[in-house]
Amino acid sequence: MFVRRSVDRHCVPGRSLNALAEIALALGFVVGRKAGAPQGASVAVIVTGDSPHRFDVIVDGRASLSPVPIDAPTASLTLDLELFAAAVGGRVDPSAGPLAAAVGLEGDQELARRVLAELAFVI
């Protein structure tokens, strides 16, 4: 995505939806296992930009995507599509330096920061 930005060819929304669907499959693992969200916790990951999307993960035995948006998640993260994709792909650390200011964190700040720091995974 950073290459597309540097050559001024932005993401095609339909194509990014396919990538987001793949990423969504691993968010339960990221929230529950890697970030260690406790039982009963919920996390909303809100992606803005060309393909806005919201992923709600709830920890109920095992962390998994919620089929419906959670009204008051324990923690939420808001970041744009390019930063989200780069973070998931391990290209950047959005929890450090100037990129941290580009991410909105709400609710349980410690949990939100752990999820943000653990976003990198291999599909």
Description:
This protein has a single domain (2-117), classed as SCP2 sterol-binding domain (Nonspecific Lipid-transfer Protein, Chain A), CATH 3.30.1050.10. The protein is built from 5 helices and 5 strands; from the N terminus they run αααββββαβα. The chain has helices at residues 2-6, 13-24, 27-34, 81-88, 109-117; strands at residues 42-48, 53-60, 62-65, 75-80, 104-107. A hairpin with a 1-residue loop joins strand 2 and strand 3 (62-65). The radius of gyration is 14 Å and the shape is globular. The mean pLDDT is 86.
Number of DSSP E strands? 5
- Please identify the structural class as seen in this structure: alpha+beta
| CATH 2nd-level architecture | 2-Layer Sandwich
Mean pLDDT: 86
Give the percentage of residues in beta strands: 15-25%
Strand line-up across the major sheet: 3-2-1-4-5
List keywords for this structure.
single chain; 123 residues; alpha+beta; Nonspecific Lipid-transfer Protein, Chain A; 5-stranded mixed sheet; 5 helices; 5 strands
